[in-house]
Predict the structure.
Amino acid sequence: MQALLILLSFVAAEDRVSVVLESAKEPPADRQEIFTDDTYRFYSLNFGSKGGRVPGFLVQSKKSGEWRRIAKISTAGAQFGRSPSFEESRAAGIADLQVGWDFRYLKKQDYVELPLRSSGSIMFPERIAWDRERHEYVAYFNEQLKVPASVTKLVFRGDDLAKAFAP
């Protein structure tokens, strides 16, 4: 019985939409490009110089020119990190961080909202890669710290993005 529940849980996670998008207008010019390929451009949008706008993780279809806000990504296939310890920071040659986080609790949820939020900051992926074999995008957070335990990785299917932009 327990094996059946685990199997059903796995099937349900694989069947659900991997990314939840909302319609969006073209963002201001100070958006930051994270990744581009033949089909999409991915951007982050922070609070702005006066802190008056809602931050967002955005994608633009190159084919239609339309914009969508990536509101949530499924936790299926995700890896969640935490802030490095003082020892890990020193070993990696990085300064002690001003803000801590521990995203490991998110694995209990079906989806995570973006941007990721810590006690004193928001986080966007610093890198996105296209996995050609699996037809998935992989978003990497905190990879620049060079501390494996700090990396958060979220995965979403290219087919789900295509459906969101379909007429």
Q: What stands out?
A: Residues 12 and 56 are 28 Å apart (CA to CA).
